[in-house]
Design a protein that fits this description.
single chain, 2 strands, globular, mainly alpha, binds iron/sulfur cluster, two-stranded antiparallel sheet
Length: 194
């Protein structure tokens, strides 16, 4: 059953099953959160998030699925674990962030950033070559995001690319690794376990 939360600007669907789904998938005890804000106070990237970690958790508890999954918070999260170390209730917020990322990808939610596109492009490169291939990542990302054709960005990016190449930070050819079969198995396992 869904209810609606009335805010100043809009009415939003509250889906109580969302909180349960997130808890089941992440194995994090969100019901223990009492909004002390210790997690957000120490989070190094909270200033860039649509909602700092404590607010995101509250919205999950309230079942505000759309607002949560369309936010940039879990994309911006660095998985640094500072929040978990500070939480007096041992809530594994990083596992919640991972879970929300997977749920957003599964539902093809784009959110407010290009980070899902970057994430998918990066993983496609690793799946293809077994390791990150920076030049391929940059080119595919820029083409798919449309950044390649933005006149203001192109000269700076070309200059940056040349500098990286000159310093040996950008290989022309994709890397070769021995364990490609193992990498393939990891992706297969990840796909099956959702
Ligand atoms: S793991 Fe994510 S949410 Fe937690 S402190 Fe680090 S960046 Fe912030
Ligand atoms: S530190 Fe823990 S209890 Fe406090 S707001 Fe963050 S998640 Fe909730």
């Amino acid at each position: 059953m869904t209810t609606r939360l009335v805010t100043k600007k809009s009415t939003e669907k509250c889906d109580p099953s969302f909180a349960k789904e997130v808890m089941d998938k992440s194995h994090a005890h969100l019901e223990r959160c009492y909004q002390c804000v210790a997690c957000s106070s120490g989070c190094p990237s909270a200033y860039q998030m649509d909602y700092p970690p404590h607010q995101l958790l509250r919205m999950v508890q309230l079942g505000l699925k759309d607002r949560v999954l369309n936010s940039n918070t879990f994309w911006i999260c660095l998985s640094c674990e500072t929040c978990a170390a500070r939480c007096p209730n041992n809530i594994e917020i990083v596992l919640v962030m991972d879970t929300l990322r997977k749920m957003a990808l599964k539902e093809n939610r784009k959110g407010s950033t290009n980070l899902p596109l970057f994430h998918n492009t990066f993983l496609a490169m690793v799946k293809f070559g077994g390791k990150a291939y920076e030049l391929g990542l940059i080119l595919f990302y820029m083409i798919k995001s449309g950044d390649l054709f933005k006149p203001g960005l192109l000269p700076g990016n070309i200059k940056l690319g040349i500098n990286m190449f000159m310093r040996g930070k950008l290989a022309i050819l994709p890397p070769r690794i021995k364990g490609k079969a193992e990498i393939k198995r990891i992706f297969e396992l990840s796909r099956k376990t959702g």
